[in-house]
Amino acid sequence: MNNSNNIYVAKLGKAVGLQGHLRLFIDSDFPEQFKKGAVFSTNRNLQLKILEYNASRELVKFENYEDIDSAKKLTNQELYSTIEQTKENCKLAKNEFFWFDLISCNVFENDIKLGTVKEVHRYPLNDYLEIITDIELVNKGFPKVFLIPHIFDKFILNIDIENKIIRVNNSFDILENS
Predict the structure, then answer these.
(1) Structural domains in the chain, sorted by start
(2) Where is the Ribosome maturation factor RimM PRC barrel domain (predicted)?
(3) What local confidence, expressed as pLDDT, does residue 3 receive?
(4) Rounded to an integer, what is the distance from CA 98 to the centroid of its chain?
(5) Which residues have CB under 8 Å from 82's CB, separation 6+?
(6) For residues 112 and 73, what is the distance between their CA atoms, to the nearest angstrom?
């Protein structure tokens, strides 16, 4: 199930009421993707199509699960979207990117290649890019991995997804002090 094309977006809680509604615990920056007609797969390989979603009450109801007994079977399942669906359903603002697009981007400060993005970590105050340090720098004694805060202007100058390049600022200092 966990092929890299699937993105975890929510978990289903317990059934609420008799009409097949379930609690929905969203783990995504794009709640707008949970709309009538949207289809998600689950960690048990079910395809679920949303019949209705009530954002204020955090309740969701799926096609063919329209009573409490069938809905109960979905409790605790995880919902996944695909990269394609996510790109279609989620509109990005300026300087917003999908984390899966940032992975494997090369990171440069001035003309020095600092490394490659391995992972994006989400912390309460900021997201951080986990960077695998370029081998030339590792050979000079720098740490193999370091974190750059995902803060525009202060650290991130420019992200070019097409060419997989992120230009940064003040990040060599972080590497030196890591």
Answers:
(1) 6-89 (2.40.30.60), 99-176 (2.30.30.240)
(2) 99-168
(3) 52
(4) 6
(5) 5, 6, 7
(6) 54
